[in-house]
């Protein structure tokens, strides 16, 4: 641990830029369980837990992961998701030697981001002396227990082997590592949604006056009654993660003038997740309101007062509908990257460098889900059952318990179908499930030619070169509907085949002792359900992007003295020529009557140049006191989905009146988008004590020159055929119509402060030798706002502005450690304050939620046998991740409210990831 800190501190101190760094304590042994978790502890960085509880993406200085650059061995790396943000859990931590985060622009750093750049580096074999071999073995368990038996072993395992050696008088070096992971994730998830006052649905519950929020999507005003949730869902799943990773570096340096390096990275990541979900409607009299003849009564209601509003938090309901969902998801990611670097001395002064690389990702995913619900054989309709429910607004455990035994588990009384249209698809009465199988390919090729020369005097080094990058990314969002077959009378066959019924789920943690479990792949493959391709209109969301980026760069390193103060740093410029092209689809046919002749290919693009200057200055005010200044212009390329060429097809109004001839709004991407661009200012003061201790204070500001938002623009619709219906007299279609798409804007600032310290106890008090702490904290503020735009007036909707997604105002990390006589222990906590995130609700409408503050505690303890022991080289490890079993939550405000109200936040999603225990052994020789 202390050696890792010492290496990281040295990297930070010696850099000409403002950087943070983390390094492996030893070969094949990064201190954290993953690269992402190590990065999340660095000052100014925050991690976001994914759906399996692990940190997989990183935000730098409050901006979303899409704004940061990601490099592997100094080169751009592909992404396995739909966008550009790299998922760092795809890199086995055992194979990474170090990671450096650049917070300021650098003219010689290619592929950098607007918020910062992460560079993951493999181990260099010629930097190591002698042969080193390391073996690591881990077993792990999760406190949530097994949620879906039979998917994965309750005990996960991981092992790795790393080998480093030199040959031919240290002119050839080889480092190679292999890591295998079989890890099991166990998830429990609840959701509350659509809180409102539902008095018009005959569910009056006494409340205070006034109740601020009316029921969503209705026209009547508040009725001064208590608030109920429209939907309650609870789900659980088991996910098996299997990953094989290989990284190799081959170096050849026959003399001091020539150096060649070949590096290879390969990762195959397969996951399989099986789960069950209960969805219920808290006001089943919705059925009576719409003439379905169902009456629900509530009793034994308890309420909770929050400000001016009353929430119904527990009670009994006589008749609630229920949809059971069974899902099966398989995902396969294959990523590989290869790079070649050659360096030659040219004469006595110049060094020439050629660097070529290629990386590629292929992702195939298949998500299958099937719906069913309790059925009343007497009425030949859905059965609405009695429930007891408890849904505290403070975020504590929730329950929805059926009061009829076997109500959700008896296959004789559960039939196919989507009860009351929870996942409604128009025109599909046989709808009972879906298959979504996206296919993603991402490929990056680079070629870099550069040269540098050293000087004596003010200029210490000059570097110049040219870099060409070509990126091709395609995202296909395929979908197939699952329908019930028809019997001889043309009626849907709702009975579930006996061969598809498995042992039920145990969901007692949320009040459901037994929940039906179905073999979803069996239902799909056996022919028990009918497969129907989804509407071609969905093809408008596919993305096919080609980018050709040519960058010329030049940078001067300087090293001088101002009076008695040593000054060093660099200044330079990048000229970036971008040629981007996008292809997509527009479907002009009827979605219920597929006609591929009406599926039209769309395309577009743009060519432009950005000039990106940068300056970094380091002043050694005292031998151990350093001041840093960074100024530069940085960019972040638009998101892949925002650049898509696909568009929906608008319809023209043929009804006589003032709106006749006008077009409905189309929804599209924008292939002509320019990047986000900002001028960045950074200032840092660092005080060092010895080799492992320092205190730093930093401030930064980013002024946006260009950003991306959503708005209305005009599009020429003159080539769209008019409806094949009789047109009224005087009908003339407008030439132009509105299109809602991403657009470039300008203005806005992001600023913040960071404080960090690494303190070695023995440096101050001898009795504290071996003790230490590493702490950091940041405070951020931004005038950049996400907002909603009225699709008719193109004006910002009043009250719809929220902080930019992913911005946590406060983040801090603290690690206490002890290391002496072979024993080491570490207790770490990372924290980020609440932040907003815009996602889609169950009706696929954009909705903004507030992510709750996230605080995660991890513990690690290890004992290494000393060199005089017969067990020399062996160490034993105990590690607990998420030690306090912290839930992850997001919140929203009831009713038709676009922006979360801090005084009226209620839990929306609550994730229970469980506590992960790892036992392991390391052996090196």
Can you describe this structure?
The protein has 925 residues and is mainly beta. The protein is 3% helix and 55% strand. It has a 22-stranded antiparallel barrel. Strands 1-6-7-4-5 form a 5-stranded mixed sheet. β25 and β26 (512-518) form a beta hairpin. The chain is globular and about 90 Å long. 44% of the residues are buried. The model is unreliable at 207-222 and 840-846 (pLDDT under 50).
Summary keywords:
about 900 residues, mainly beta, 22-stranded antiparallel beta barrel, five-stranded mixed beta sheet, 4 helices
Summarize this entry quickly.
With 925 residues, the chain is mainly β. It is built from four helices and 48 strands.
Number of strands: 48
| Structure class | mainly beta
Name the helicity range: under 10%
- The value of Rg in angstroms is 30 Å
Low-pLDDT stretches: 207-222, 840-846
Q: How large a portion of the residues is in β-strands, by DSSP E?
A: over 45%
Number of distinct helices: 4
* Overall pLDDT score: 87
Q: Roughly how many Å apart are the termini? A: 19 Å
How many strands, which pairing sense, and closed or not: the largest β-sheet? 22 strands, antiparallel, barrel
Q: Any idea what the shape is?
A: globular
């Amino acid at each position: 641990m202390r050696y890792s800190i010492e290496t990281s501190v040295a990297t930070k101190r010696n850099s000409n830029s403002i950087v943070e760094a983390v390094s492996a304590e030893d070969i094949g042994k990064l201190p954290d369980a993953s690269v992402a978790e190590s990065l999340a502890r660095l000052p100014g960085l925050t991690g976001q837990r994914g759906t399996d509880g692990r940190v997989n993406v990183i935000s730098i200085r409050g901006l979303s992961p899409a704004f940061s650059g990601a490099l592997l061995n100094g080169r751009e790396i592909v992404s396995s998701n739909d966008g550009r943000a790299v998922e760092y859990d795809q890199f086995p931590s055992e194979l990474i030697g170090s990671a450096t985060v650049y917070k300021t622009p650098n003219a010689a750093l290619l592929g950098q981001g607007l918020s910062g750049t992460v560079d993951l580096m493999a181990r260099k074999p010629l930097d190591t002396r002698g042969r080193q071999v390391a073996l690591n073995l881990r077993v792990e368990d999760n406190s949530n227990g097994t949620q879906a038996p039979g998917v994965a072993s309750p005990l996960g395992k991981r092992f790795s082997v790393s080998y480093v050696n030199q040959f031919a008088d240290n002119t050839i070096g080889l480092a190679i590592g292999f890591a295998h992971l079989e890890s099991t994730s166990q998830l429990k998830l609840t959701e509350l949604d659509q809180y409102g006052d539902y008095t018009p649905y005959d569910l009056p519950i006494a409340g205070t006056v006034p109740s601020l929020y009316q029921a969503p999507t209705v026209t009547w005003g508040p009725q001064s009654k208590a608030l109920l949730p429209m939907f309650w869902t609870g789900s659980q799943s088991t996910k098996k993660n299997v990953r094989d990773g290989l990284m190799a570096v081959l170096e050849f340096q026959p003399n001091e003038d020539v150096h060649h390096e070949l590096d290879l990275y390969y990762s195959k990541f397969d996951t399989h997740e099986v789960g069950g979900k209960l969805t219920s409607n808290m006001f089943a009299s919705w059925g009576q309101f719409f003439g379905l003849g169902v009456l629900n009564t509530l009793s034994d209601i308890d309420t909770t007062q929050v400000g001016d509003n009353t929430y119904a938090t527990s009670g009994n309901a006589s008749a609630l509908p229920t949809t059971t969902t069974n899902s099966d998801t398989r995902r396969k990611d294959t990523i590989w990257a290869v790079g070649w670097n050659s360096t030659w001395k040219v004469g006595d002064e110049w060094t020439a460098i050629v660097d070529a690389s290629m990386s590629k990702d292929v992702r195939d995913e298949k998500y299958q889900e099937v719906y069913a619900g309790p059925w009343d054989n007497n009425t030949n309709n859905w059965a609405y059952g009695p429930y007891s429910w408890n849904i505290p607004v403070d975020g504590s455990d929730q329950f929805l318990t059926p009061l009829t035994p076997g109500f959700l588990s008896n296959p004789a009384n559960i039939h196919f179908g989507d009860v009351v249209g929870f996942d409604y698809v128009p025109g599909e009465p046989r709808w009972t499930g879906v298959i979504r199988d996206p296919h993603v390919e991402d490929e990056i090729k680079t070629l870099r030619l550069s040269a540098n020369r050293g000087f004596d005097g003010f200029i210490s080094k000059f570097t110049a070169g040219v870099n060409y990058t070509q990126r091709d990314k395609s995202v296909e969002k395929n979908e197939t509907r699952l329908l019930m077959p028809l019997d001889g009378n043309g009626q849907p066959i709702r009975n579930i085949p006996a061969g598809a019924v498995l042992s039920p789920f145990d969901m007692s943690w949320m009040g459901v002792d037994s929940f039906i479990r179905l073999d979803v792949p069996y239902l799909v493959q056996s022919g028990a359900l009918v497969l129907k391709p989804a509407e071609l209109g969905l093809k408008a969301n596919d993305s096919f992007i080609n980018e050709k980026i040519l960058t010329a760069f030049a940078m001067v390193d300087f090293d001088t003295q101002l009076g008695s103060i040593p000054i060093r740093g660099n200044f330079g410029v990048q000229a970036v020529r971008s040629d981007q092209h996008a292809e997509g689809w527009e479907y002009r046919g009827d979605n219920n009557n597929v006609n591929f002749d009406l599926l039209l290919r769309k395309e577009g693009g743009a060519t432009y140049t950005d000039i990106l200057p940068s300056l970094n200055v380091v002043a050694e005010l005292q031998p151990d006191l350093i001041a840093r200044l960074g100024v530069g212009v940085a960019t972040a390329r638009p998101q892949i989905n925002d650049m898509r060429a696909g568009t929906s097809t608008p319809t023209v109004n043929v009804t006589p009146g003032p709106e006749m001839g006008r077009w409905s709004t189309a929804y599209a991407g924008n292939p002509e988008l320019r990047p986000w661009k900002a001028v960045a200012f950074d200032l840092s003061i660092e005080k060092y004590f010895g080799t492992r201790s320092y205190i730093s204070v930093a401030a930064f500001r980013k002024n946006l020159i260009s950003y991306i938002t959503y708005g209305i623009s005009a599009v020429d619709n003159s080539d769209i055929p008019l409806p094949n219906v009789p047109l009224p007299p005087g009908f003339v279609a407008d030439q132009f119509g509105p299109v809602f798409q991403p657009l470039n804007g300008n203005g806005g600032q992001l600023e913040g402060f960071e404080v960090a310290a690494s303190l070695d106890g023995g440096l101050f008090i001898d009795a504290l030798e071996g003790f230490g702490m590493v702490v950091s904290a940041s405070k951020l503020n931004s005038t950049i706002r996400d907002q909603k735009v009225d699709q008719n007036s193109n004006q910002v909707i009043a009250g719809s502005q929220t902080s930019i997604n992913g911005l946590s105002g406060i983040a801090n990390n603290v690690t206490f450690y002890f290391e002496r006589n072979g024993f080491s222990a570490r207790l770490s906590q990372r924290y980020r304050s609440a932040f907003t995130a815009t996602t889609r609700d169950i009706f696929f409408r954009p909705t903004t939620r507030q992510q709750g503050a996230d605080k995660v505690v991890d513990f690690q303890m290890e004992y290494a046998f000393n060199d005089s022991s017969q067990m020399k080289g062996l160490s034993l490890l105990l590690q607990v991740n998420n030690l306090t079993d912290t839930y992850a939550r997001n919140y929203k405000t009831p009713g038709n409210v676009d922006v979360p109200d801090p005084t009226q936040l209620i839990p929306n999603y609550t994730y229970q990831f469980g506590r992960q225990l790892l036992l392991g052994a390391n052996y090196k020789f």
